[in-house]
Specification:
heterodimer, A: 235 residues, mainly alpha, globular, B: mainly alpha, two-stranded antiparallel ribbon, 11 helices
């Protein structure tokens, strides 16, 4: 989403909602000195940027793609920490790469952070990938990334439509945007699943705990993720 | 990679005005400008052109390299311009006479969208040219942004280049060992990214141990910043007056 297509009222509303979510995620992410949460979140956010340097050839098309990383962060860090990590990535992208704009930051946080972290990861990926079988991980990851991308695109359509700055009817914008985002979601799903399956072989404890946390009914809202504990156990 | 190089350049820039102002003031001034810009009506071309004066005057006056701003403006989202370009097709009502021609409402609204996109990028570029990232972090902290978010931003900024260089090395090694498209397939890339991911986890563990060795007790301590001085208030009031005047003073 961009400043240029957003009305001030909608931009302000999404700013307020996202600020509330940032405050919530910051409160839930707080850890003591013994937890490596802060450096872990920081370097994993940097990992997402770094991973975008390593592109790959898209099957059947010859063009290249790269990882976006939202769902991967949610799986590894848990919803709250991943949301905070995605917030930092979007702030850096907004400030230095001129992506979106300052007023659209709230809307972009909702589209790219809230949807994968607070909707798709807990409601789709965790229940489906709970037993961490290879096929289930692949299917759950593909479904989750496609859903996250499509819901994000639909959210942009709704935001653009409600803002009323573009004359393009929402149905036409959805037709332009959703198929492209669904295809990108498939690519993102394949590469994310590839990384998860690699981790499953190389570090089964990491993914086992991250996926296993889906079947546990913890009293705390999906935190802390197993992978933080796994990172603590690294040699 | 070029865009990341641009981020690194910002840490070493010279010749740009170093404001002896509280970073909060600059952040608030830019936020105010962007909020006023976004509030410009769909067909208010005059207002958006009036707000264009701010970067046109501020960029050369503050010693900011014009190419740094122009380069960012050029790469403004094709999505925005693509969506905006439908306006001239869908709204053909004549609206604005320009010499012998009359611009349609659709073309006017498209120009407003394009100008808003460019000016929004220019405003952020001015902020990042004037303030180092650490100062932006300090400003956000003093504006009561959550501590966890500010620390996260500073960690990300600190390790961004390190990990990107590591990823570039991995990519170069892969490309040198690959023939044609072999080695660039999904499964190889996933394994490559997986190993980078594991290295990243181990790096975070080493960082944490270093923090503990230096006495980290879970709390980040910072030098208290100075309170807002008269020059900060004057700058903020001046910026607000100029921006609001340009926004409201033009029909």
């Amino acid at each position: 989403m961009s400043d240029a297509l957003l009305s001030p009222v909608l931009g302000g509303a999404f700013w307020a909602a996202s600020a509330g979510l940032v405050a919530l995620s910051a409160r839930r992410s707080a850890g003591g000195a013994e937890e490596s949460t802060v450096p872990l979140m920081g370097v994993l956010s940097a990992f997402v940027f770094a991973a975008q340097m390593i592109n790959f050839t898209l099957p059947g098309t010859g063009s290249s793609g790269h990882l976006a990383g939202g769902l991967l962060l949610a799986i590894v860090l848990g919803a709250h920490r991943a949301f905070l990590a995605i917030t930092s990535i979007l702030v850096v992208q907004c400030l230095f790469f001129a992506d979106g704009g300052l007023m659209a930051l709230g809307a972009n946080l909702f589209n790219l952070g809230c949807i994968p972290c607070y909707l798709v990861y807990p409601l789709v990926w965790k229940p489906l990938a709970a037993r961490s079988a290879q096929g289930k991980i692949l299917a759950a990851t593909l479904l989750s990334t496609v859903l996250a991308f499509v819901l994000g695109a639909l959210s942009i359509v709704v935001q653009t439509g409600l803002s009323g700055i573009s004359d393009l009817p929402p149905s036409a914008l959805a037709l332009l945007l959703v198929p492209v985002q669904a295809a990108l979601g498939v690519v993102e799903g394949l590469i994310t699943a590839g990384i998860l399956l690699f981790l499953r072989k190389a570090r089964p404890d990491l993914l086992g705990q991250a996926a296993g946390s889906g079947s546990q009914r913890t009293t705390e809202a999906a935190e802390p993720p197993g992978s933080i504990a796994a990172a603590e156990a690294l040699p | 990679v070029k865009r990341l190089g641009e981020v690194r350049r910002l840490g070493r820039r010279t010749g740009v005005w170093s404001p002896d102002l509280d970073p909060r003031v600059l952040i608030l001034a830019v936020l105010l400008y962007v909020a006023l810009l976004v509030s410009v009506g769909k067909h208010s071309l005059g207002q958006v052109l009036a707000l264009l004066c701010v970067p046109l005057i501020a960029v050369p006056a503050l010693g900011i390299p014009a190419w740094a701003v122009i380069r960012k403006i050029i790469f403004v989202s094709p999505f925005v311009l693509g969506v905006g370009l439908f306006n001239p097709l869908l709204d053909t009502r004549p609206l604005l006479p320009v010499g012998p021609w009359v611009l349609s409402a659709g073309w006017v609204s498209f120009l407003v969208i394009a100008c808003k996109a460019w000016l929004s990028v220019a405003a952020v570029a001015v902020l990042t040219e004037l303030l180092p990232f650490e100062a932006i972090g300090a400003g956000l902290r003093r504006l009561k942004a959550p501590e966890a978010l500010v620390n996260q931003l500073l960690f990300l900024h600190r390790y961004l280049f390190l990990l990107v260089e590591e990823a570039q090395t991995l990519r170069k090694a892969r490309d040198l060992k690959s023939f044609g498209r072999r080695g660039r397939d999904l499964s190889t890339t996933a394994r490559l990214l997986g190993s980078l991911f594991l290295r990243t986890l181990e790096r975070s563990q080493r960082i944490h141990r270093s923090m503990l060795a230096r006495g980290f007790d879970g709390v980040f301590r910072h030098a208290p910043g100075r309170p807002l001085a008269a020059r900060d208030w004057i700058f903020l009031a001046g910026a607000a007056l100029v921006c609001a005047g340009l926004r409201l003073g033009v029909a």
